[in-house]
Design goal:
Number of domains of chain B: 1
Number of domains of chain C: 2
Distance between the termini of chain B: 54 Å
Largest interface: B-C, 80 and 98 residues
Number of helices of chain C: 9
Structural class of chain B: alpha/beta
Radius of gyration of chain B: 21 Å
Chains: A alpha+beta, B alpha/beta, C alpha/beta
Shape of chain B: globular
Largest sheet of chain B: 9 strands, mixed
Largest sheet of chain C: 7 strands, parallel
Number of strands of chain B: 13
Oligomer: heterotrimer
Strand order of the largest sheet of chain C: 5-9-4-1-2-3-10
CATH superfamily of chain B: HUPs
Strand order of the largest sheet of chain B: 9-8-7-10-6-1-4-5-11
CATH topology of chain B: Rossmann fold
Order of helices and strands of chain B: EEEHEHEHEHEEEEHEEEH
Helix content of chain C: 25-40%
Structural class of chain C: alpha/beta
CATH architecture of the largest domain in chain C: 3-Layer(aba) Sandwich
CATH superfamily of the largest domain in chain C: HUPs
Chain lengths: 379, 249, 324
């Protein structure tokens, strides 16, 4: 066992912290209030290499390990989960999927600009009637000989409007069930694509979430990833890694709330002393600290397994479920510790609480994670 | 052209200062080490100058007098763009020792411009740059808030009380820089962090003079008396108190 | 044997800080039983020089070499070091100001002397020679022992105070014998704001932070400063936002000041800001947040909106000046 981070991992953590505490903090409240997309921040983070940090150097990525990714995601999410979800989707769903399962031509054309952060990707799996049960895809891609013809609607798509590159999951042979599913690279500005309005969300309000409609969209044959029928496996494998990103996001939301609550408890006075000296508050903080530390360890364990090339699907499900659930608990307590101040926007913790809720829902709800974890026990 | 930037490794500026039980030493357990903020500004300006020099400035070297625990901050300097680094392997006792050892290196490895921050945020020493220039018998300019190249000639502004002076000295020289010289320090990019691994960090043993002074003890400042609150409605009363009680106006 | 003190002049005049410095040098010289010798560079009228006797200077050396017309750090250091050697100085004292920071380190090397900057008290002991100085921007004090024969000190402003002592003074000219070919600081342009109080010299300072809400609200602050004869300063966010010039920024990375009175208006008092002002003799904090850390550091506090309180202060200051 070795709990020591490398010099590089620490440098990446510090870089992410510096960017978050120096830049993201400046306008996070305004972006949340007005649901503004963080255009400048995405550009800056791309220049710093955060948007493709997991992609190998060969394909213009940062070539960093997953442990560094967890550290960076935590720091960014402490301040702004809207920004970190953009980073997470691009890194651990789109770039990871393309690098791991795409061919060289696809990597050359689509992965490079995504790894450099010049373009942004989106992962289109959820549908109005297919959320947790991903096999019930209604979007279809019909083989027309030279191309596929794509029809259907995708929901809750992060980066839905800003992305240039979509990875779309669709049925090519609905009769074959999940073996009839494929994944396609679709360019955002192809004819027949309509992007719905920006969803007016409870939290993570500055990431752009949209529905995307496909109406007879022609997709070149060479844009299918992998063998015919590989789509479902692609989605499941990619989501295994994606869970580490969202788990780290939930971790960051929780640890950000813990930091704010601790700071507040050291400054705020009641009954003649700083409230951290009251056991009611001190014990709350102690419980929160243990939860955050547990979540961090689960995230790092899953990341470490992935970096070692070992199976990490169950570990990432545990990290995602636990981190998301404690993010909800810890942020709720952080609001409680802040009292009335916690309920107003300037103190950030109510926003973190709204953001935490989403981590229990997207990229596999906490209930779906329990299915994954319990199935591993049945084996 | 070559630029040397002197870096000091200091505790993060938000560090809470603690003393050892007998007050003979500072308790540095758990301290996070960073590049001295003024030195970091110096480095930022050096990188800006190199980038717009169209190749005229070919290397930025950073130098630190310190033991191996200073290497993470040196690597950070390399990650944000310094080309190579020198570490003089010595835990220094005072500014004299630091300056003398850097001078010993520079005598054999000349630079055109040497930059150093005006102060270190730990012991608030502000002598390294000036001492270094004196050891090297070259000009020094202090309180520099602007440095640019006019063709091949560097031009500087220094902050004097109530204004600035635009001045020029022949190279090589030491510029002791302060706020204004550069904007926010840079955040290292992934590419830089990866490249930092491959850049040269030369470690040399000390050959300069020893220290002339040493810290023998520390103390915490005296606790301040409690604040006297004045009612906002009668805020004007403050002026009376400042005159009659505090006697400062 | 002597204690040498460099007394800077501004357009031929000394300031209160010069007298504080001479008082300090004289106190050390008295302990050592040696003379206090002031060095003055450039043209200073005799009546100005004679005033230094009131604070304990036994002798003034007037250095008028033409190489010293512009502040060339090396030339100034050569002149002062030469005078120190010629007078067998044991201690050389500077102010911890712009010129002191520029010149003292070079003098230390020339004299192979250990140096302590920003010293806040008389030496704690003379053998061994130990001084106390601020470290970590005043968050702690360090006791520094200087082991060299000659010691170079720079005194933190407003830390010792002016002490009168009447001695008789002689004025001598001193030729620093400088080789002009060696010194080549070329002054191209000088920009000074006349009439404005220099922040680092100001005895009273009125300072604004983000709580001022807008750069348009600075009128009453400036008015208050003008009535009191105070300098104006600001916090870092305000300078970074461009509401006020960077030259007004006080704090850890800005200017460090130690006035008699520091009035902080709408500044929360982050540790980095306090580092730049905590040596002020009296601190006033005005803030809407009762938990603002500045109230811990302040002597007087007012809880409320600065923009509502400022007009009341201006009015009271006007009334006070009218009656005094």
């Amino acid at each position: 066992m070795n709990f020591q981070f490398t010099e590089e991992q620490l440098m990446i953590q510090q870089a992410a912290r510096d960017y978050a505490q120096r830049e993201l903090i400046k306008d996070v409240l305004e972006r949340d209030e007005k649901a503004l997309y963080p255009t400048e921040h995405v550009k800056n983070l791309a220049e710093l290499g955060f948007l493709g940090m997991l992609v190998s150097e060969k394909w213009d990525g940062g070539g960093m390990d997953t442990v560094s990714y967890v550290l960076a995601m935590e720091e960014i999410s402490k301040v702004d989960a809207s920004v970190s979800v953009i980073m997470s989707v691009n890194n651990s769903l789109v770039c990871y999927g393309l690098e791991k399962f795409g061919n060289d031509a696809q990597r050359e054309k689509y992965l490079r600009p995504l790894a450099r952060g010049e373009k942004i990707g989106a992962f289109l799996l959820s549908e109005p009637e297919a959320g947790s049960d991903a096999t019930k895809q209604r979007t279809t891609a019909v083989d027309m000989g030279d191309y596929y013809l794509l029809n259907g609607t995708k929901n809750w798509i992060t980066n839905g409007n800003t992305a240039s590159t979509y990875l779309v999951i669709a049925h090519t042979h609905p009769e074959k069930g999940h073996r009839g599913i494929n994944v396609f690279i679709v360019e955002r500005h192809s004819e027949g694509i309509t992007v719905g309005p920006h969803e007016n969300k409870m939290g993570m309000r500055s990431s752009d979430t949209h529905s995307v409609m496909f109406n007879d969209v022609k997709v070149p044959k060479e844009n299918r990833i992998g063998e015919d029928g590989f789509g479902f496996k692609f989605a499941m494998k990619t989501l295994e890694g994606g869970r580490i990103g969202i788990a780290s996001q939930a971790l960051g939301i929780a640890s950000g709330a813990l930091e704010l609550a601790t700071k507040y408890a050291k400054e705020r006075k009641a009954f003649g002393t700083e409230i951290i000296n009251h056991q009611a508050i001190a014990f709350k903080l102690a419980d929160m600290a243990v939860k955050v530390e547990n979540a961090r360890n689960l995230c790092l364990k899953a990341a470490w397994l992935k970096d070692q090339g070992q199976a990490y699907g169950t570990a990432s499900a545990m990290a995602k479920m636990y981190a998301a659930d404690i993010a909800m608990e810890v942020t709720t307590e952080a609001v409680q510790i802040h009292g009335g101040y916690g309920y107003v926007k300037e103190y950030h913790v109510e926003r973190l609480m709204r953001e935490a809720k989403l981590t229990q829902i997207y990229e596999g709800t906490s209930e779906v994670q329990k299915i994954i974890i319990s199935r591993s026990l049945m084996e | 052209m070559k630029i040397l930037v002197c870096l000091s490794n200091v505790p993060d500026t938000t560090t809470k200062i603690k003393l050892s039980g007998d007050q003979s030493a500072l308790d540095m357990a758990g301290v996070q080490w960073v590049i001295n903020p003024w030195d970091e500004l110096a480095l930022t300006r050096a990188l800006d100058l190199k980038e717009k020099s169209e190749g005229k400035i070919d290397t930025i070297t950073v130098i630190t007098v310190g033991e191996s625990l200073t290497e993470p901050t040196i690597r950070k300097a390399l990650a944000v763009g310094a080309d190579d680094a020198v570490r003089i392997n010595l835990n220094p006792t005072d500014d004299y020792e630091v300056a003398s050892n850097i001078a010993a290196w520079v005598k054999n490895n000349p630079y055109d411009i040497i930059l150093s921050g005006i102060e270190s945020s730990d012991f608030n020493g502000s002598a390294v740059g000036g001492m270094l220039a004196e050891f090297l018998k070259i000009p020094s300019v202090s309180s520099v808030s602007f440095l640019d190249m006019e063709g091949d000639k560097p031009l500087m502004k220094r902050e004097i009380p109530g204004g600035t002076e635009t001045i020029r000295v022949p190279m090589p020289f030491v510029a002791i820089v302060q706020k204004g010289i550069a904007l926010d320090p840079r955040i290292p990019a992934m590419r830089g962090i990866m490249m930092a691994r491959k850049k040269e960090l030369t470690v040399v043993e000390p050959t300069g003079e020893g220290a002339k002074s040493t810290y023998i003890g520390f103390a915490m400042p005296k606790a301040k008396a409690k604040v006297k609150m004045i009612d906002a409605e009668n805020a004007g009363q403050l002026i009376t108190l400042l005159h009659e009680e505090a006697k400062v106006i | 044997m002597s204690v040498i003190v460099y007394t800077e002049n501004w357009d031929g005049k000394f300031k209160k800080s010069s007298y504080e410095l001479v008082s300090y040098a004289h106190a050390i010289a008295s302990e050592l039983g040696v003379e206090t010798i002031a060095i003055s560079i450039g043209q200073v009228p005799e009546d100005q020089l004679n005033v230094l006797a009131n604070y304990g200077a036994n002798k003034v050396l007037c250095v008028k070499n033409p190489e010293l017309a512009v502040l060339d750090n090396a030339a100034y250091a050569s002149a002062i070091a030469r005078a120190a050697k010629a007078n067998n100085a044991q201690v050389v004292v500077f102010a911890n100001n712009f010129t002191g920071k520029a010149v003292a380190p070079r003098v230390a090397v020339k004299l192979e002397a250990g140096m302590a900057n920003s010293v806040t008290t008389l030496p704690l002991s003379f053998s061994p020679f130990v001084v106390q100085k601020n470290i970590f921007n005043g968050k702690a004090q360090g006791k520094l022992q200087i082991n060299s024969d000659i010691k170079v000190l720079s005194l933190a402003q407003n830390s010792f105070g002016i002490k009168e002592s009447n001695v008789s003074l002689t004025i001598e000219n001193f030729d620093a014998q400088l080789d002009s070919s060696k010194f080549n600081t070329e002054l191209i342009e000088k920009n000074t704001v006349s009439g404005k109080i220099i922040l680092t010299d100001a005895e009273l300072v009125v300072s604004g932070g983000r709580g001022m809400k807008s750069p348009d609200n600075w009128g009453p602050l400036e008015e208050l400063a003008a009535i009191l004869g105070a300098g104006t300063a600001c916090s870092r966010p305000v300078a970074d936002e461009g509401w006020r010039p960077h030259s007004e920024h006080v704090g850890q990375t800005g200017k460090v000041i130690a006035p008699n009175l520091y009035i902080a208006l709408g500044i929360s008092g982050a540790i980095q800001h306090l580092a730049g002002v905590s040596s002020s003799k009296v601190i006033v904090a005005v803030n809407t947040d009762p938990e603002a850390p500045f109230f811990e550091a302040a002597d007087y506090g007012i809880l409320g909106d600065v923009n509502k309180i400022l007009p009341k202060l201006v009015e009271a200051a006007k009334a006070f000046k009218a009656h005094s």
